[in-house]
C-alpha cells in the first residue's frame, strides 16, 4: 500500500506543534538576504529539537518532551486569498508525483500502486497550515513571539522597544483580529543578529549586554551569521540544501484579481466562491484592519486552503446548481462543472467566473511552465553559523519556552481548581437539566455556533490547558482536560467547542496508546458534529485526516475508508479525489475480506474527481491503476469507460502514444457498445493516431500497428502463381482455362489425397520410378499443409496471398490502398542488405512489384477475404511481413449532410503484422518446427504451362460423346518437356492414343514431348459423359518438366476440375435367348437379343431430347451379329417413349488359322447408311477404357474372356477351385458378349436453342435368359433389400457355405438342366386316307445341340399319353387344343454322345389315328450325363418346343 513518510504519531505531533511568531526589523531581512533567505526561512530546518527536554506539571512530576517541533511564522503572515489558495492547493498536488511503484499480491492478483503519495501529503500539510485560527481552540494561536533586531541598527535597543510596542498593539486590538494569541501573557524572546563580516563586534556585544540586563539572560540570544567573507565564498552546489524542502515557489504579492491568482482548473471555475476579506471573531467584524494585504511571505511553507472551506469559515455559502453524474454513467461529461454563487461579502474583483481566461497550463498539462534556476542558499554561512542557528532554537525552547509553558500550566490549573464545581451561570445550569445533550436534537433550541465565551471563561481556560498539555506531550492530562471540557461544552450546547473537545480527546487517547471503542466514538461524533451541526466541513476534514491516520495505525482500514468516503462531497473535487484515493488504498490493505473490487471502484471515482479538478495526470494514474483490476474480467463497459478516460486524459497531457493505445483498446471484438458509440470511439482513435503519426513521421518510424481489422494468422494462404482466369467467349468457341488451384481448395482433404495419388502416378510414369521419399507438390500453403520448407517462387510469376480480415464492430470499416508488406534479399548481392517497401517507396526497377487495392470496405460484424499479390522481379529471398493500408472512419455515420462527408473523414496509415503459430511436432522431443509459408525462395526461370479447353460444355447427356480441343501454351521463360495428363476418371477421356501396355497405368497419357517458351500446341480430346445422371466432379492433372533437369523445381503441375451436370438420355434393356431354329447342315448356335430402348427424358425437364438409334454393335469372340434385325424404320423416341427390337447372333466357327472379328455392327438408322465401325476412334477408345480395369490388352485386341464374370463365382468361390467339368458346363449359359448402342439426340433447351449430340452406351450380357438393364433405375433401401433376396440366418456350426462340397465338384442343377437343346423336323401337313389305312405314320427327325464345352451322353425317351411330361407340355395356344391321340412308334429310347457345341440327329416315327392338328414337340424327354457317369445321374433338360402337324383325311373316291 502507498505509505506516508510520517507515522501517525509524528503526523499528529507536527499538526499541533506550538506556534511562534517572528517579528524582524528591516536590516535583519537585508542581512539574511545575502543567503537568498529570509530569517524565517533560514531557521526552518532547525525548528526541531534534537535533544529531550523537560517541564514540570502542577503535581511536580517531570514530563519529558521528545521530538519537539515549533512552527515559526512571520507575525505579519496571513492566509492567502481564495483564488491564490486554490492555485496553491492545485499546484501542491499537480507538482507532486511519484514514479516509483510497488507490486502487491492480493487474492492471486498482482497490482502496481505508488510506493508513496507525496501529492496527498503535500495537500494534507498545506491544508492543516492554511486553516484560520479559531476561537474554539488554541493550537493555532501564537504562544510566543521572537523579536529579531540587527546589530547594524543605529539604536538596536530602541528598535526592540519600538517592536515591543507594535507587538503590544497587535495583542490589544479590540475586537481581536489576526494574528491570534494564546493568552495575554505571550512569551517574548529577543535575538540580536550580527553580521560577522560587515558588523561592528564591539557595538554588537554592548547591545547584547544591554538586552540581557533589560530582558534577562534566558530571553536573549546573540546570533552571529555570514561569517564567510565574500572572497572566500565556495561553490556548494554539490552539497545538499537543507532549506529546499521548506521553501515554496515565490508567490507575487498581488490582489486576488491578478492573472496568477486566477482559476486554472475546471474545479476552480465552478463550485467555489471568493476568499473572504475579513475574519469574524466573537460575532464582530472589522473590514478595514482585516484587508489581506499581507499575503503569504516567502519561507512560511505552503499555506493552501480550499476556497469553499475558507468561505464557509467566514460565514459564506455556496450552493451547487448542477448534479454530478456517476463516472461510469454514459451521461457523465467531464466538462460539467459545479458552479456556485457568492454572497454580498464577495469582492467583485475576485469573481472566479471572469477569470476563466487565466487557465494555467501547469495544471492542464500536468507540469510546471516555469524554469526554476538553481538558487544557492546559505552561501555566506559557515558550519559555526549553522550551529548558532541550531543553538538558537535549542536555547529558546529549553530556557524560555518550556519554563513559560510550565508557568502557564500552573496558572491555568490554579484558576480552574478555584472555580471547579461552581456553576458558571444559572442559564448553563438550567441547560444541563432541561436542555438536550446532543447536537441537532429536537430539544436543542440553541442556534449552531451561537454560544460565545469570553476570553477568561473557565470552559476556555480548561480547553487552553488541554491544548498546552497536548502540544507538549502530556497526553494523559490532556485527555482529562478535554474530557472535562467536552462535558461543559455539551451542557452549554456549544457544539463547535464540543466537537473540538471530542476531536482532541480522541487524539489524546491515541497518542497515549490507550485507544478504546469509546475513544474512537469520540472522534466519529466530533466529525459528525462538525458536519451536521456546525456546518464546518473544514474542521470535519481535518478531523478525518487525523482520525484516519489513527485508524490506519490500528489496522482498521475498513473504518478509515468509511471516514474518507464520508468526507467526499460536491463542494471540492480535489479534496474528494484525494480522499477517495486514500479510501481505495485502505480497501486494498484490508485483509478480512480482501476488497479488490472496492479498491478498483473507488480509484475510478478518485480518477473522475481528479479529472473534474483539472488534475489530469493524477486522473490518468488512477484509471491506469483501476484497469489492472478490471482487465480480463469481461466487464467490457467498465473497461471501455476506463480506456476512453485514459485516452482523453493522455491526449490532453500530450501523451499521444498512450492515448492511442487506450483508444485502440476500445476497438475490440468483445465490445458491447452500440454502433453509434463505436463510431465515436473509432473517430477518437483515428484523430489521436493521426496526431501520433504526425509526431513520429519526422523520426522516420515504421508504420503503426492498428487495432483493426483483425487478421487470423492461421488462416493466411499463400498461392504460388496467380488465380486462374475466368471462362470467356472467343468467337463461336467457349474458352475455359484450366481451373488450377484456388483458395477454396484448402479445406478439401479427400480431394488433396486424390490429387496426390495422381501426381504419384504421373511421376512414376514420367521418371520411370518414384523417388525414395515422395513429397507431393504444394502450390497452396495453408495451416493444413507442411510448411517446414520454403515455398519456391519464379521470377515474373505472382505470389498470391489470401488474408481473412475481421471487422468486429457494428459499423463498416473502409480501407484504402491495401497492399502487402515484404522484405527482399537479392541472391546476387554479397552483403546481406535487405529491401522492404514499408518505409522506402517502390520504384519501377524494384525487386518486387506490389499490387495495391484502391478500396476495401469491411461490412459490420463480418470476416472478409482479401486477396493480394506480389510479383518478384529478381532472384533472391522474399519474406511477406504483413499488410499495409489506410484506415478511415465511416463518414456517413459521422455526418448527416453529404456535403460535409469529405471534411469529416479521417484517414490513418497503418499495418498488420502476420503472426503464424508454430506447428506442433508430431514426434515428441523432435526439433522445433517453423512455419515458413511466408518465406519464399525466388528462382530465376521455369516453364509455365497454360491449358485451355475449347467447346467444353457443363451439361451433357448420359453416355454423350463430345469433342473438345485442348490448347497448351508455354508462357514461362524456359522450355518444357514430358507433358503428361492423368485423371481419376480415365474412362471418360480419349486423346486418340491407345492404352499403355502396362496394367495399372491406364490413367496416364503422354501428350507432348517438347514445348518451347511461347509455343502453343493443340490436341483434340473426346469426352464421354458418365452413364448415370447427376453432378459429377471430373479432375485432370497435367504434368510437365523443365527441360533443364537440374532446375528447381524439376516438374510442375496444372490442375483442372469442373462440375459436369449429367442429364438422362436412354435406358437399354436386353435379354439373350437361345433360338429354337434348327441347327442343321453344319450351322452353329443362334442367340436372339431382345432389346428395349427407352428415352428417359421427362416431359417437364428443361431440356427436351429426341433420340434416334444409329447402330448396334456386339463385341464378342464367340458371337457375331446377323445383318437381319427386326426393328421399326425411322424410330425417333420422344420423352418416355420406348422401342423394342430383336437382334440375332450366331456362334462363330472355330478356325485356328483365321483371325476372329471381335466386333459386328448392324446399322439402325433410316437410310441404312454406315456410321462407322466400332473399331474406329474414339468409339473403340471409350470401349477399351470402359473395360480397361478388367481387360488384358493383346496385340490382336482385347481379350473378351475377362469381360463377363462367371455368375457361379459369387456363389461357389474362385474359378481356381472349380472342377474342369463344372467350368465346361458353365459355358452353356455364358454369353461372353457386350452390346454397344450408338445413338443420336436432338437437344432443345428452354430457350428453344437446339443442338445435336451423339452417344454410346455399353451393356454387358452376362447370362442367357437374364434381363440386363443399364443404367439402373434408382432404388430405395427397401427395394435394394428386395433385390438382394431374403435374409438367411446361419447356425454358428453351419459351414456348408464355406466347405468345398458338391457346389464346387458338381455343376448347379440350373446349369445341368440347360446343357442340351433340341428340335423336331417333319412335314407340316399330310393328307391321309384313313379308310385305306387306320394309322398315318409320319417320319420325324429330332436334332440335338450340345451347348456346353464338354462331351455329353444324351438319351431321348418317347412318352405315352399318361405321362406327366405330356400334360406339362400341352400347348394352351391352340384353339381348339391340339389333338393328343398320337403315338411314337418304332424307336422308344436311345443314347447319343455329343461333342462340345456339336449337334446330332435321331429319327422317330409318329402314328396318328385320326385327322387333326398335332403337337409333335410334346411327349419327348431328353436326358444327359457326362461320359462315364452312371445312368442315374442323367438330368432331364428343360426345353420347350412346339411343332404343329396337320393331318387331313383324303376325300372319298367312290360316289
From TrEMBL:
Ranges of residues in domain TPPC8 first Ig-like: 753-957
Segments forming domain TPPC8 second Ig-like: 999-1054
A Gene Ontology cellular-component term: TRAPPIII protein complex
InterPro entries, per the entry: Ig_TPPC8_1st, Ig_TPPC8_2nd, Ig_TPPC8_3rd, Ig_TPPC8_C, TPR-like_helical_dom_sf, TRAPP_III_complex_Trs85
Pfam family, one: TRAPPC-Trs85
Region spans: Disordered: 254-275
Entry-linked SUPFAM superfamilies: TPR-like (SSF48452)
TPPC8 C-terminal Ig-like domain span: 1315-1425
Organism of derivation: Zootermopsis nevadensis
Polar residues composition bias: residue spans: 254-264
Protein name: TRS85-like protein
TPPC8 third Ig-like domain segment(s): 1057-1259
Amino acid at each position: 500500500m502507498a505509505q506516508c513518510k510520517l507515522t501517525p504519531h509524528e503526523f499528529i505531533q507536527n499538526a499541533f506543534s506550538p506556534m511562534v511568531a517572528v517579528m524582524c526589523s528591516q536590516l535583519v531581512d537585508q542581512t539574511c538576504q545575502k543567503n537568498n533567505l529570509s530569517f524565517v526561512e533560514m531557521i526552518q530546518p532547525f525548528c526541531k529539537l534534537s535533544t529531550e527536554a523537560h517541564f514540570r506539571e502542577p503535581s511536580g512530576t517531570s514530563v519529558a518532551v521528545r521530538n519537539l517541533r515549533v512552527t515559526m511564522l512571520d507575525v505579519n503572515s496571513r492566509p492567502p486569498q481564495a483564488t491564490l489558495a486554490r492555485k496553491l492547493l492545485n499546484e501542491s498536488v499537480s507538482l507532486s508525483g511519484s514514479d516509483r511503484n510497488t507490486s502487491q499480491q492480493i487474492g492471486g492478483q498482482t497490482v502496481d500502486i505508488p510506493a508513496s503519495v507525496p501529492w496527498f501529503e503535500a495537500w494534507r500539510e498545506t491544508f492543516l497550515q492554511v486553516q484560520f485560527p479559531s476561537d474554539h481552540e488554541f493550537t493555532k494561536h501564537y504562544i510566543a513571539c521572537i523579536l529579531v533586531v540587527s546589530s547594524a541598527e543605529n539604536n538596536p535597543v530602541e528598535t526592540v522597544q519600538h517592536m515591543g510596542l507594535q507587538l503590544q498593539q497587535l495583542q490589544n486590538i479590540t475586537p481581536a483580529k489576526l494574528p491570534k494569541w494564546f493568552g495575554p501573557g505571550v512569551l517574548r524572546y529577543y535575538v540580536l543578529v550580527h553580521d560577522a563580516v560587515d558588523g561592528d563586534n564591539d557595538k554588537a556585544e554592548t547591545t547584547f549586554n544591554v538586552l540581557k540586563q533589560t530582558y534577562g539572560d534566558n530571553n536573549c540570544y546573540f546570533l552571529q551569521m555570514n561569517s564567510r567573507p565574500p572572497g572566500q565564498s565556495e561553490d556548494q552546489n554539490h552539497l545538499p540544501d537543507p532549506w529546499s524542502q521548506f521553501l515554496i515557489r515565490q508567490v507575487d504579492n498581488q490582489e486576488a484579481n491578478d492573472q496568477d491568482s486566477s482559476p486554472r482548473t475546471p474545479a476552480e471555475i465552478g463550485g467555489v466562491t471568493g476568499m473572504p476579506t475579513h475574519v469574524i471573531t466573537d460575532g464582530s467584524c472589522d473590514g478595514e484592519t482585516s484587508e489581506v494585504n499581507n499575503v503569504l511571505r516567502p519561507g512560511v511553507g505552503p499555506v493552501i486552503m480550499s476556497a469553499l472551506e475558507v468561505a464557509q469559515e467566514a460565514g459564506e455559502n455556496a450552493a451547487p446548481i448542477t448534479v454530478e453524474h456517476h463516472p461510469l454513467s454514459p451521461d457523465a461529461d467531464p466538462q460539467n462543472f459545479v458552479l456556485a454563487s457568492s454572497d454580498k461579502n464577495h469582492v467583485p474583483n475576485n469573481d472566479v467566473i471572469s477569470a476563466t481566461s487565466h487557465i494555467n497550463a501547469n495544471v492542464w498539462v500536468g507540469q510546471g511552465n516555469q524554469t526554476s534556476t538553481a538558487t544557492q542558499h546559505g552561501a555566506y554561512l559557515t558550519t559555526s553559523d549553522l550551529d548558532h542557528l541550531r543553538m538558537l532554537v535549542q536555547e529558546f525552547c529549553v530556557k524560555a519556552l518550556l519554563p513559560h509553558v510550565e508557568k502557564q500550566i500552573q496558572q491555568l490549573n490554579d484558576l480552574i481548581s478555584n472555580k471547579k464545581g461552581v456553576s458558571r451561570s444559572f442559564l448553563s445550569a438550567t441547560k444541563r437539566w432541561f436542555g438536550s445533550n446532543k447536537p441537532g436534537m429536537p430539544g436543542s433550541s440553541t442556534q449552531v455556533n451561537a454560544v460565545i465565551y469570553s476570553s477568561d471563561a473557565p470552559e476556555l481556560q480548561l480547553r487552553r490547558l488541554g491544548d498546552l498539555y497536548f502540544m507538549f506531550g502530556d497526553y494523559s492530562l490532556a485527555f482529562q482536560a478535554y474530557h472535562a471540557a467536552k462535558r461543559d461544552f455539551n451542557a452549554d450546547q456549544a457544539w463547535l467547542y464540543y466537537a473540538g473537545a471530542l476531536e482532541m480527546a480522541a487524539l489524546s487517547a491515541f497518542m497515549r496508546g490507550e485507544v478504546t471503542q469509546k475513544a474512537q466514538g469520540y472522534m466519529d461524533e466530533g466529525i459528525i458534529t462538525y458536519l451536521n451541526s456546525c456546518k464546518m466541513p473544514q474542521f470535519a476534514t481535518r478531523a478525518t485526516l487525523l482520525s484516519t491516520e489513527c485508524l490506519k495505525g490500528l489496522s482498521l482500514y475498513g473504518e478509515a475508508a468509511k471516514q474518507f468516503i464520508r468526507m467526499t462531497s460536491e463542494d471540492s473535487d480535489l479534496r474528494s479525489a484525494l480522499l477517495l484515493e486514500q479510501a481505495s488504498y485502505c480497501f486494498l490493505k484490508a485483509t478480512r475480506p480482501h476488497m479488490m473490487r472496492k479498491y478498483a471502484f473507488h480509484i475510478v471515482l478518485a480518477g473522475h474527481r481528479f479529472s473534474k479538478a483539472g488534475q489530469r495526470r493524477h486522473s490518468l494514474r488512477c484509471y491506469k491503476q483501476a484497469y489492472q483490476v478490471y482487465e480480463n474480467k469481461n466487464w467490457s463497459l467498465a473497461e471501455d469507460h476506463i480506456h476512453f478516460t485514459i485516452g482523453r486524459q493522455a491526449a490532453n497531457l500530450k501523451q499521444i502514444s498512450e492515448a492511442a493505445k487506450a483508444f485502440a483498446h476500445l476497438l475490440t471484438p468483445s465490445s458491447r457498445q452500440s454502433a453509434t458509440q463505436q463510431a465515436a470511439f473509432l473517430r477518437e482513435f483515428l484523430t489521436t493516431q493521426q496526431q501520433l503519426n504526425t509526431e513520429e513521421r519526422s523520426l522516420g518510424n515504421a508504420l503503426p500497428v492498428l487495432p483493426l481489422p483483425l487478421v487470423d494468422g492461421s488462416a493466411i494462404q499463400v498461392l504460388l502463381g496467380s488465380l486462374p482466369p475466368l471462362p470467356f467467349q472467343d468467337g463461336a468457341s467457349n474458352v475455359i482455362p484450366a481451373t488450377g488451384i484456388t483458395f477454396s481448395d484448402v479445406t478439401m482433404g479427400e480431394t488433396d489425397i486424390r490429387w496426390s495419388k495422381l501426381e504419384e502416378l504421373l511421376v512414376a510414369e514420367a521418371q520411370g520410378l518414384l523417388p525414395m521419399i515422395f513429397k507431393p507438390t504444394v502450390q497452396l500453403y495453408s495451416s493444413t499443409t507442411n510448411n517446414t520448407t520454403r515455398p519456391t517462387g519464379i521470377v515474373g510469376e505472382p505470389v498470391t496471398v489470401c488474408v481473412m480480415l475481421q471487422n468486429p464492430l457494428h459499423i463498416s470499416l473502409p480501407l484504402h490502398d491495401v497492399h502487402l508488406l515484404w522484405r527482399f534479399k537479392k541472391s546476387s548481392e554479397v552483403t546481406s542488405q535487405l529491401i522492404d517497401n514499408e518505409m522506402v517507396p517502390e520504384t519501377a526497377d524494384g525487386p518486387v512489384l506490389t499490387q495495391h487495392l484502391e478500396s476495401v470496405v469491411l461490412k459490420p460484424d463480418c470476416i472478409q477475404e482479401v486477396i493480394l499479390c506480389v510479383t518478384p522481379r529478381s532472384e533472391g529471398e522474399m519474406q511477406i511481413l504483413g499488410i499495409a493500408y489506410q484506415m478511415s472512419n465511416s463518414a456517413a455515420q459521422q455526418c448527416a449532410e453529404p456535403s460535409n462527408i469529405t471534411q469529416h473523414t479521417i484517414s490513418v496509415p497503418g499495418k498488420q503484422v502476420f503472426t503464424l503459430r508454430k506447428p506442433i511436432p508430431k514426434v515428441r522431443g523432435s526439433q522445433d518446427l517453423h512455419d515458413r509459408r511466408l518465406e519464399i525462395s525466388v528462382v530465376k526461370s521455369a516453364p509455365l504451362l497454360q491449358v485451355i479447353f475449347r467447346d467444353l460444355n457443363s451439361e451433357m447427356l448420359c453416355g454423350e460423346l463430345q469433342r473438345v480441343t485442348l490448347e497448351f501454351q508455354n508462357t514461362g521463360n524456359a522450355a518444357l518437356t514430358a507433358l503428361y495428363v492423368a485423371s481419376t476418371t480415365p474412362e471418360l477421356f480419349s486423346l486418340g492414343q491407345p492404352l499403355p501396355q502396362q496394367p495399372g497405368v491406364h490413367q496416364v497419357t503422354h501428350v507432348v514431348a517438347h514445348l518451347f517458351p511461347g509455343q502453343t500446341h493443340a490436341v483434340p480430346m473426346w469426352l464421354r459423359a458418365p452413364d448415370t445422371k447427376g453432378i459429377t466432379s471430373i479432375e485432370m492433372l497435367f504434368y510437365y518438366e523443365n527441360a533443364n533437369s537440374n532446375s528447381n523445381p524439376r516438374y510442375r503441375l496444372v490442375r483442372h476440375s469442373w462440375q459436369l451436370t449429367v442429364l438422362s438420355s436412354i435406358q437399354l434393356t436386353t435379354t439373350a435367348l437361345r433360338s429354337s431354329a434348327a441347327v442343321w447342315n453344319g450351322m452353329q448356335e443362334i442367340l436372339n437379343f431382345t432389346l428395349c430402348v427407352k428415352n428417359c427424358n421427362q416431359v417437364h425437364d428443361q431440356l427436351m431430347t429426341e433420340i434416334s438409334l444409329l447402330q448396334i454393335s456386339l463385341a464378342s469372340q464367340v458371337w457375331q451379329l446377323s445383318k437381319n434385325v427386326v426393328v421399326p424404320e425411322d424410330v425417333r423416341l420422344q420423352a418416355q417413349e420406348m422401342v423394342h427390337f430383336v437382334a440375332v447372333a450366331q456362334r462363330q466357327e472355330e478356325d485356328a488359322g483365321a483371325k476372329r472379328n471381335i466386333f459386328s455392327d448392324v446399322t439402325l438408322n433410316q437410310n441404312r447408311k454406315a456410321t462407322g465401325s466400332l473399331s474406329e476412334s474414339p468409339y473403340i477408345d471409350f470401349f477399351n477404357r470402359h473395360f480397361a480395369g478388367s481387360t488384358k490388352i493383346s496385340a490382336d485386341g482385347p481379350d473378351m474372356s475377362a469381360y463377363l464374370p462367371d455368375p457361379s463365382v459369387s456363389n461357389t468361390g474362385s474359378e481356381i477351385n472349380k472342377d474342369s467339368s463344372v467350368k465346361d458346363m458353365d459355358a452353356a449359359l455364358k454369353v461372353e458378349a457386350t452390346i454397344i448402342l450408338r445413338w443420336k439426340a436432338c437437344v432443345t433447351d428452354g430457350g428453344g436453342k437446339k443442338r445435336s449430340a451423339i452417344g454410346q452406351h455399353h451393356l454387358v450380357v452376362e447370362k442367357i435368359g437374364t434381363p440386363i438393364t443399364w443404367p439402373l433405375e434408382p432404388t430405395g433401401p427397401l427395394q435394394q433389400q428386395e433385390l438382394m433376396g431374403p435374409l438367411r440366418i446361419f447356425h454358428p456350426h453351419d459351414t456348408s457355405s464355406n466347405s468345398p462340397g458338391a457346389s464346387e465338384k458338381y455343376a448347379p442343377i440350373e446349369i445341368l438342366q440347360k446343357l442340351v437343346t433340341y428340335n423336331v423336323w417333319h412335314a407340316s401337313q399330310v393328307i391321309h386316307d384313313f379308310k385305306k389305312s387306320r394309322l398315318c405314320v409320319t417320319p420325324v427327325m429330332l436334332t440335338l445341340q450340345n451347348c456346353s464345352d464338354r462331351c455329353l451322353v444324351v438319351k431321348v425317351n418317347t412318352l405315352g399319353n399318361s405321362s406327366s411330361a405330356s400334360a406339362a407340355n400341352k400347348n394352351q395356344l391352340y384353339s381348339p387344343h391340339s389333338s393328343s391321340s398320337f403315338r411314337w412308334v418304332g424307336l422308344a429310347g436311345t443314347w447319343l454322345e455329343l461333342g462340345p457345341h456339336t449337334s446330332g440327329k435321331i429319327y422317330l416315327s409318329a402314328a396318328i389315328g385320326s385327322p387333326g392338328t398335332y403337337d409333335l414337340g410334346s411327349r419327348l424327354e431328353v436326358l444327359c450325363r457326362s461320359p462315364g457317369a452312371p445312368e442315374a445321374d442323367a438330368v432331364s433338360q428343360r426345353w420347350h418346343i412346339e411343332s404343329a402337324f396337320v393331318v387331313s383325311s383324303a376325300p372319298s373316291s367312290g360316289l
